[in-house]
Amino acid sequence: MSASHSSDPPGERDTERVNMALAAGAIIGTWFWDVAQDSLTVDDALARVHGLDPALARTELRLEQVVAAVHPEDRPGLAEAIAEAVRRGGRYAHQYRTRSADGQYRWIEAIGRVDLDAEGKAIGFPGVLIDIDERRRVEAERDQAQTLLRSFVEAAPGVVYAKDRQGRILIGNRGTTELIGRPPEAYVGRTDAELLGDPVQAATVMATDERVMASGQSEQLEEEVSFPDGRRAHWLSTKSPLRDADGNVVGLIGTSLDITTRKVAEARHLEVEERYRLAARATNDAIWDWRISDGQVIWNEALATLFGHAHSETDAQWWLDHIHPDDRARVDAGIHAVIDGDGDAWSAEYRFRRADGSYAAVLDRGAMLRGAAGEPVRMIGAMLDLSGRKAAEAALADSEERLRLATEAGDMGFWDVDLVHDVLIWPARTKAMFGISPDVAVSMRDFYGGIHPDDLAMTSAAFAAAADPAQRARYDVEYRTIGKEDGVVRWVAAKGQGLFDGDRCVRVVGVAIDISARKAADARLHELNERLESRVAEEVAERTRVEDALRQSQKMEAVGQLTGGIAHDFNNMLATVIGPLDLLALRLGDSDPRATRYIDMAIDGASRAAQLTQRLLAFSRQQPLQPVQLNVNQLVAGMSDLLVHSLGSRIHLDTVLADDLSPAFADANQLENVILNLAVNARDAMPEGGHLRVATANCCIDAPGDDAHPDVPPGRYIMISVADNGHGMPPEVIAKAFDPFFTTKGVGQGTGLGLSQVYGFVKQSSGHLKIASQVGQGTTVKVYLPRPVAAMEAGDAGDAGGAPGPEGTAAPGGDRELILVVDDEPAVRQFSIDALSEMGYPVLAADGAATALALLDAHPAIALLFTDVVMPQVNGRELADEALRRRPDLRVLFATGYSRNALERDGVLDPSVQVIGKPFTLDELATRIRTVLANA
């Protein structure tokens, strides 16, 4: 704007003012102040902004008259800014609040310029006013969102940080500060190499960061970190590339959680498993696991094999009741002495009753597992059946007696080596151990020649040591013999000692026993122990698989809770964006095409954000559902045109609908979204074209583990399958297919929420979802939806109506019913008031239940209660219940951001409840209002 003086002609001064207005944009008023004459003139618009009589416009005013409308808190700052501008000259800009004629304050920005004469005195001060009220509000909301983000990052557990492409830290939360041991100002802008005391650790971290940024793929890994105080910990870190608006990787964001405790727990778990394995090896047969807290005892299958009891689980009393009455008190006292004391091992021999009523002699041993405070937790042990051993011991005793008698009578099993005369004496029994007939003469050559080559050196050395006067060792060996006549391999246990005459050994005498049977039994026992080890390993592997499945379920539940909460907050914020934009578009009409285009762009962006939050709610199973009895065949047939249009001309669509399909129980609109999502995913898997098949069928699963429908619980379902012949998915992609934000598509080609939305809807509908795929052979997704109880009772041939169509709506504002709006959020409440007023409805408003009920009693003409659900103290459902108790004919419409609230019954919405989801447009609100009022 060019300089202007008080002596300039009025036309030139007006031209200058217009040029300045055009340069500033969004102008709501102009002024010119002749500083030298203290004469201020304003236009009509500025007069209205400052609450002045328009008649005063273009007359000479005093500055005090205009400033009088400025907010009292802003006047000192305004006066100081004006004085400073007049003193120094040049450009002037200042923001303040002013009161208009309606008494409301609004934010404006004054922009002008002070012209100085040659002596530096102010002579002219022209300027314009710009309406910045909306901008200030948006900035406040932005600052609030940034504060919320900072609070969220700061409150997040563990370490949360962001780095630039060179590895310099951009931001870090409290956990980051604790890990590095320095305040943020000391580490922001520096790399790990400059911060971490361990150079190896720093190099490892930076190498991982560079790999993530180079690949553009997120990674989750375990890292061992060192704290400044010397502590070491294990962290579970998730690192993802940080991208700019164009999708370029400009840095890295990461989170880390301390899993040191989990690592310790895993080590303890391995220790328990090792004890279990050792206990299994220490016993032979029936393994048991006794949980002390409730007395539960788990047995392996040997309980049935050895003793005939077909049990896998009993209590401790059952075990005690099967002990022989003469042994019971002793065993009970002995095992409880270990449990109640500080012992860690117990063993006892007793008689145990078999299923047929006979008793088996057993050796029972157990290992005590205790908690951190020494309290008893579990005892794991094994019961060895001694019946065979006892019989063998009795037989051995009888044999030994016979051997003794035979030895005394005829030297049976005896051997005598006369070293002086080189004579070997073997009775017939001993000869038989070497496969020699009783009447055949033998010598030491027969002894050494009959020993197995692998045992010869050891046996010869033992005999020499027994005959050596310097050692006089006891001869005690076990060796194998190879029968001289029959070639049979036998095991022999021999014991003996030398007889000495001074320093000379004259004889070595002893006995020999055939132990082949015992060795065979030991081999069988070893084999049984190895098989037992294998079974224990299989049971541990199964337990690990179940624990992995539990962790996955917990992860999905945690992510669902987080996304649901975020989506709810965004829905509330979007409600104050989409609605007012709708109102603004209605007010502007077609008067300003460019402004209308900007509004449409803003509404489109906000609507897409609303769709994103709806997908988050679907994944977290918090979307409002209104399931009905539904004819799936009609729904699929009605979608044919939409599917064909969405798939394109290169993909052939084939629908196979079962003739006798039973009705399903589901939300029709959401089921359409599920089928469309699966079809679009299949389309993206067939970039060169292909075949897509959508089929329906009745599905009855009578028992768990059905090969045709694995992992689907027994029940009656309607099955919808979507199959393609695209490129398919590898197992690692199938495992993550339903995870939120996981996608194999390129940047900007997908949000990763399509299949997770499908997953959330099906689970919220009490259904099941299975996916089967092979690389290069296509993918099949099967959706199992429960049948209505009434349909199942009526049989499989039942029929039901299709998806309910939209109800007829009337133009808003015709009946002029009085509406009561209740919402604790001022911005949302004001939008609802403005929207309904724009439609022609008279409106009353309240910020809570107490005010609402008072207005309801005072205004009998209120026809509709329009209330938010989530409110402090008394929620919307409780308010509606009380209002209907007072006014049974009252219509009620609820507004909610998600369904996890008082509106739900068993996970779905009550069919009688009328609800509109946030955010909503004017058209959606008008349609829902007329629908609710039309049902009066």
TrEMBL record:
CDD domains reported for this sequence: PAS
Positions where 4-aspartylphosphate occurs in the chain: 868
Keyword set, alphabetical order: Kinase, Phosphoprotein, Transferase
SMART domains: HATPase_c, HisKA, PAC, PAS, REC
Chain positions covered by the region annotation Disordered: 795-814
EC number: 2.7.13.3
InterPro entries: CheY-like_superfamily (IPR011006), HATPase_C_sf (IPR036890), HATPase_dom (IPR003594), His_kinase_dom (IPR005467), HisK_dim/P_dom (IPR003661), HisK_dim/P_sf (IPR036097), PAC (IPR001610), PAS (IPR000014)
Domain Histidine kinase: 565-789
Gene3D superfamilies assigned to the protein according to its UniProt record, in alphabetical order: 1.10.287.130, 2.10.70.100, 3.40.50.2300, Histidine kinase-like ATPase, C-terminal domain, PAS domain
Lineage top rank: taxon: Bacteria
All residue ranges annotated as the PAS domain in the record: 145-216, 272-342
Protein name, as recorded: histidine kinase
UniProt source species: Stenotrophomonas nematodicola
